């Protein structure tokens, strides 16, 4: 079985080839640079770039895997949630290819893709708890079975990755004209800082909830920076940047570790998975792994390349759905807001 996966929900054009949910033969990700002058993703530019890059990225993937279009069994594509123009570019490309080659089409939910990233090259079996932390989402999910998910908690405001991105911006860590992920920039500089230097708030701590909230934390960092600048001048902010970054990062990590460890105990599972772009964070990976180990559980984290947006996870989820006999019609639609299939909410 060879399932081609296509991902284009935001600003990464990606394709991958999977033979099962655990085995990915090739994965190509093209991060768009078109947005650099604008300081954020410009949806219209993203759609155009997906249209330009889609076929070449697929060709490179097939070449890397040594597989031709004739060998494919099915085509899986992210059909939501995401930017409508970006999704349409991927969905239409997938539909055209599937129709032209007479292949089944499988629509994959972007977040289900992130959940499946934990299965690639691993022996992780449900039930497990997944912490999905990315630029657009922060959700704690009890994966009872593949395809059966229970939402335990979520962010009430900013996603964890979004908080990293905003703090990177306000600390001036994003060099103009270069592509650096905000979270990466904060965690790189945080290595030289003291995570205990400033006690930033841990919202909702001690409450009986798996929800998180990061907007107050971001405002605290902003207030701290403004106060320091007013009292001691701009150089004082520069000198304190590593400590501020490390203290902010520690506050995010503490909150995410607390919720995940409690969820693992409450769901009585032996494994947790950390997925999404923020799973690339070294402190979070290390501290969550050790907290879970102390609680008698094990953490599974995908390779860094599988944490941020990619198509390997889409090909993996598509291969699983295809093996279950689940396919979609050629009328599959792009849906900017799409609920995770099989999701129930606790309480
Ligand atoms: O999963 P992803 O590629 O895209 C979404 O679906 O949102 O996640 C991107 C997010 C960004 O907010 C980025 O700043 C964050 O993941 N991120 C990190 C790190 N690397 C990427 N956050 C914290 N630490 C990192 N090392
Ligand atoms: Zn994502």
Question: How does this model look, in words?
Answer:
The chain is of the alpha/beta class and 347 residues long. It has 2 domains: 153 residues, ATPase, nucleotide binding domain (Nucleotidyltransferase, domain 5); 176 residues, Nucleotidyltransferase, domain 5, CATH 3.30.420. It is 43% helix and 18% strand. It contains 10 helices and 11 strands. A 6-stranded mixed beta sheet has the order 10-9-6-7-8-11, sandwiched between helices. A 5-stranded mixed beta sheet has the order 3-2-1-4-5, with helices on both faces. Strand 6 and strand 7 form a beta hairpin. Helix 7 packs parallel to helix 8. The longest helix has 34 residues. It binds 5'-O-[(R)-(carboxyoxy)(hydroxy)phosphoryl]adenosine and zinc ion. 5'-O-[(R)-(carboxyoxy)(hydroxy)phosphoryl]adenosine binds next to helix 4 and helix 5.
């Amino acid at each position: 079985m060879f399932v081609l996966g296509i991902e284009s929900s935001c600003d990464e054009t990606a394709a991958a080839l999977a033979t099962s949910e655990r085995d990915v033969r090739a994965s190509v990700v093209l991060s768009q640079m078109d947005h650099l002058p604008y300081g954020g993703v410009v949806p219209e530019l993203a759609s155009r770039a997906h249209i330009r890059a889609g076929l070449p990225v697929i060709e490179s993937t097939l070449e890397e895997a040594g597989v031709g279009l004739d060998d494919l069994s099915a085509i899986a594509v992210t059909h939501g949630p995401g930017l409508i123009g970006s999704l349409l570019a991927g969905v239409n490309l997938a539909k055209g290819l599937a129709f032209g080659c007479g292949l089944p089409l499988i629509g994959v939910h972007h977040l289900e893709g992130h959940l499946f990233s934990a299965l690639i090259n691993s022996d992780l079996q449900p039930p497990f708890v997944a912490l999905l932390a990315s630029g657009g989402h922060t959700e704690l999910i009890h994966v009872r079975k593949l395809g059966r998910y229970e939402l335990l908690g979520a962010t009430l405001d900013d996603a964890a990755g979004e908080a990293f991105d905003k703090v990177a911006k306000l600390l001036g860590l994003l060099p103009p004209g270069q592509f650096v992920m905000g979270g990466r920039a904060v965690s790189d500089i945080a290595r030289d800082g003291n995570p205990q230097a400033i006690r930033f708030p841990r919202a909702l701590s001690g409450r009986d909830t798996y929800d998180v909230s990061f907007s107050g934390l971001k405002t605290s960092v902003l207030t701290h920076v403004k106060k320091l600048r007013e009292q001691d001048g701009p150089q004082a902010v520069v000198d304190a940047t590593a400590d501020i970054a490390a203290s902010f990062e520690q506050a995010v990590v503490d909150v995410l570790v607390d919720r995940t460890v409690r969820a693992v105990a409450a769901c009585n599972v032996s494994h947790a998975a950390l997925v999404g772009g923020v799973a690339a964070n070294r402190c979070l990976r290390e501290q969550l792994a050790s907290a879970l180990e102390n609680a008698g559980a094990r953490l599974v984290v995908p390779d860094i390349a599988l944490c941020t947006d990619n198509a390997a996870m889409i090909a993996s989820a598509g291969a699983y759905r295809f093996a279950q006999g689940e396919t979609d019609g050629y009328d599959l639609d792009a849906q900017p807001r799409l609920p995770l299939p099989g999701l129930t909410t606790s309480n």
